[in-house]
Every structure is written in C-alpha cells, then in structure tokens.
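Today's session is about reading a structure prediction critically. Students often jump straight to the picture, but the first step is always the sequence itself: look for stretches that repeat, for charged clusters, for runs of hydrophobic residues. Only then move on to the predicted structure, which in these notes is written as discrete structure tokens rather than atom positions. Here is the chain we will use throughout the hour.
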Amino acid sequence: MLKLFYKPSALRVIKKFTTTETQVYRNTLTQLKESPEAGGFLRGSLKGLRKWKFKVNSVPYRIVYKISDDSIEIIAVGKRKDFYDLLD
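Below is the predicted structure for this chain, in token form.
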C-alpha cells in the first residue's frame, strides 16, 4: 500500500474539517489509496498533478495529489469553489 505525505497547507485545511467532513475524507482516502491512478489529470500550469473528487452533504470537494513510486503526496484539499485559483 502506498504511503501518504501531506503539504503543510493541506494539513491545515484537514485539521479544520468538521466531524462529517473528516469521516467522508477518510473514506475517500481509502478509495484513493486502493486506486490512485483513477484520479483525473489536471491541465495547464498544474499539469502532472491529479485530482480526486468527493462530496460532503452535496458540497463538492477536491483533493489534488501527485503519485510517486511508493507514495502519494497530498498537495491540496478543499471545497471546489475557487479551489483551482488558490493552486495557481
């Protein structure tokens, strides 16, 4: 199984999650670890990174990550609204 690494900015967002958000995020991480290649590729200035989509109470969230040989680096986590503007 692949190891997870986080950028500090992603960890700060995750620590602020509510109980429901945390529970859904953990379930999503399990799916991500099982098949990380299933996430879609990003384009433009974010080329080479992947995205994974999930919803919490019908609010869309995104995880942006990069796959290495034996690890997954979580670059950013957050709500879809204005999410990609923060990454540029």
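Discussion point for the tutorial: DSSP finds three helices and five strands in the chain.
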